[in-house]
Amino acid sequence: MATQRITAAGGSRPEAGYESGVIERWYKEAVIYCLDVHTFQDSNGDGVGDLPGLISRLDYLARLGVTCLWLNPVHPTPDRDDGYDATDYYGVDPRIGTLGDFAELIHQADNRGIRVIIDLVINHTSNEHPWFQAARSDPESPYRDWYVWSKDEPPDRFQGAVFPGEQKETWTFDEDARCTRCSASGCSWA
Q1: DSSP 8-state class, residue 117
Q2: Which residues contact 46 (CB under 8 A, 6 or more apart)?
Q3: In this model, does residue 134 exceed pLDDT 70?
Q4: Domain total for the chain?
Q5: Residue 99 and residue 129: Cα distance in Å, rounded?
């Protein structure tokens, strides 16, 4: 395994002889296979791909030369935004398996020399997420400024819908917060 000398924070040199086991820029040589677990391989016949199904196909992926799996979101979600609207960053969507199944995936992938990375979009939560619930219910919440709020109706409220057919506006009046909140990326204060 290639090693690189690591410089400590602040630019100071590490103790003499300190080597890191970090492989530098492994992704440049990687064969990355991106997949949505929900659509990849169903192990129990319910019509939804799942982690046990993915685990059962790791040998196939390894034979293809895959060295890294990039998984679309795997967290619990009401699925109004293709899984990117997470309700719990510590859990696994029960439709695809359990946290134990996820740990087994990581273990089995590692046994085959396959890395696993996941989409972790922490700047986009479901309105069911505890952070959002706390932010909307209390103006003094430490999570309040993690979301964009306005006391006045923004003039660009009906412009820039990200999900046409699902969304008519980029700002939504929130009854609990008693103000308007940005419900899409790219909101402006105008």
Answers
A1: E
A2: none
A3: yes
A4: 2
A5: 18
| Structure tokens, 121 | 């979009």
What DSSP assignment string belongs to 11-47? Answer: GPPPSTT--B-PPTTGGGT--EEEE-HHHH--SSSSS
Per-residue pLDDT tens digits for 30-43: 999 999 999 999 99
Final residue of a structural domain among 93, 118, 143: 118
**The two structure tokens encoding residue 20:** 């890191």
Q: How many CB atoms lie within 10 A of CB 1?
A: 5
Q: What pTM does this model have?
A: 0.74
Name the DSSP class of 9: G
Q: What is the CATH number of the domain that holds 64?
A: 3.30.750.90
In DSSP notation, 132-163 reads HHHHHH-TT-TTGGGS-EESSPPTTTTS--SS
- Report angle CA 111, 117, 118 to the nearest 5 degrees: 130
Q: Which residue has the tokens 């199904």?
A: 53
